[in-house]
TrEMBL record:
Family: Belongs to the binding-protein-dependent transport system permease family.
Record InterPro entries: BP-dep_ABC_trans_perm (IPR050901), MetI-like (IPR000515), MetI-like_sf (IPR035906)
Domain ABC transmembrane type-1 per the UniProt entry, residue ranges: 76-267
Native species: Thalassospira mesophila
Subcellular localization, as worded in the UniProt entry: Cell membrane
One GO term describing the cellular component: plasma membrane
Topology in the lipid bilayer: Multi-pass membrane protein
Transmembrane segments: 12-39, 75-101, 113-136, 148-167, 188-213, 248-267
Name of the protein this chain belongs to: Sugar ABC transporter permease
Gene3D superfamilies: MetI-like
Length: 281
C-alpha cells in the first residue's frame, strides 16, 4: 500500500515537473531566438532564423548601429531612471499604506482596501485621454516626471495588496513587545516590519519593474520628444513603414533584456520566498 502511494506521488511529481519544464521552454524560446539572431547578418536572420550563428552568418552590425548611430545610452538612462525612481516610490508608499491597513483599525478601513483593489482590476490605459490632459495642464508633457507619476499610480494598488497580505502574517506579539520597550511606530515599521517582509518587497519590485521596462504606450504618448525616449520607444526608429532594420531591432532588444536578468539574479531567492510564502499560510 505504501509502495503504491509513493509511486503515485512520484508519478505526479514527474508530471508536474514535465509541465513546468515545458512552460519554461516555451517562455524562454522567443528570448533565445532574439539573442541568437541579434548576432547574425540580415541574410542569416531570414535564411536560418532558428539556427545558431555560424562563421558565415555571424555579424555584430546590429550592435554597432545601436551603439554608434542610435542614442542608446540616453534611452537606457531614461528607462533606468524612470524604473528605479518608480520602484523606490512605490515600495515606500505601498509599504506604509499596507502597514496602516493591516495594523490600524479606522473608519472605512475595508472600503479603502476595496477601493485600492479596484485599481488592480481597472487598466490605467482606460484613462489615457484624461491623463494626457492632466499632464498638459501641469506642463509635464515630454518629461520623465510624467512617466514616473503614471507608473507609480499604476503600481501602487498591486503593491499595497501584496504587502498587506504579508504584513497580516507578522505576529502581533512581536509588535507589542517592541511597543512595550518604548519603540516608536516609525522605528517599528523600518527596523522590525520591513526586514520581515523583504521577500514581499522583492516580489513587488519585480512585478513593478517588468511592466514599466516593457511599456511603449505611455512613453509614446507622454514623452515622445528627443532626449526623453525610453528603450522601447527608441527601438521604434529602426522599424519603418516599408523597411525594418532587424539587426538593430534584435540587438536593442537583447541589450534591453540585461537589466531584467540582473534584477532577477539579485532578487531570485527573495522572489521565490515571496511567491511561496504568499501561497502557503
Amino acid at each position: 500500500m505504501a509502495f503504491n502511494v509513493r509511486k503515485d506521488q512520484a508519478s505526479r511529481a514527474v508530471i508536474v515537473h514535465a509541465v513546468l519544464l515545458s512552460y519554461t521552454l516555451i517562455a524562454l524560446y522567443p528570448v533565445f531566438l532574439i539573442v541568437i539572431n541579434a548576432f547574425k547578418s540580415r541574410k542569416g536572420i531570414f535564411r536560418e532564423p532558428m539556427a545558431l550563428p555560424t562563421s558565415k552568418t555571424f555579424s555584430l552590425s546590429g550592435f554597432e548601429k545601436v551603439l554608434d548611430k542610435a542614442d542608446f545610452g540616453t534611452y537606457f538612462f531614461n528607462s533606468m531612471s524612470v524604473t528605479i525612481i518608480t520602484i523606490v516610490v512605490v515600495l515606500l508608499l505601498a509599504a506604509m499604506a499596507a502597514w496602516a491597513l493591516s495594523e490600524y483599525k479606522f473608519p472605512f478601513n475595508t472600503a479603502l482596501a476595496i477601493y485600492l483593489a479596484i485599481g488592480i482590476m481597472v487598466p490605467i490605459r482606460l484613462g489615457t485621454v484624461s491623463i494626457l490632459s492632466l499632464m498638459v495642464d501641469l506642463g509635464l508633457v515630454n518629461t520623465l516626471t510624467s512617466l514616473v507619476l503614471v507608473y507609480v499610480a499604476q503600481g501602487l494598488p498591486l503593491a499595497i495588496f501584496i504587502l498587506t497580505e504579508f504584513m497580516h502574517q507578522i505576529p502581533k506579539d512581536l509588535k507589542e513587545a517592541a511597543r512595550c520597550d518604548g519603540v516608536g511606530e516609525f522605528k517599528i515599521f523600518f527596523a522590525v516590519i520591513l526586514p520581515l517582509v523583504r521577500p514581499a518587497v522583492a516580489t513587488v519590485a519585480v512585478f513593478t519593474m517588468i511592466p514599466i521596462w516593457n511599456d511603449l504606450w505611455f512613453p509614446l504618448i507622454l514623452a515622445p520628444g528627443n532626449g526623453k525616449q525610453t528603450i522601447t520607444l527608441g527601438v521604434q526608429q529602426f522599424i519603418g513603414q516599408y523597411v525594418t532594420d532587424w539587426n538593430a531591432v534584435l540587438a536593442s532588444l537583447s541589450l534591453a533584456i540585461i537589466p531584467i536578468l540582473i534584477l532577477y539574479l539579485i532578487f531570485s531567492r527573495q522572489l521565490i520566498r515571496g511567491l511561496t510564502s504568499g501561497a502557503v499560510k
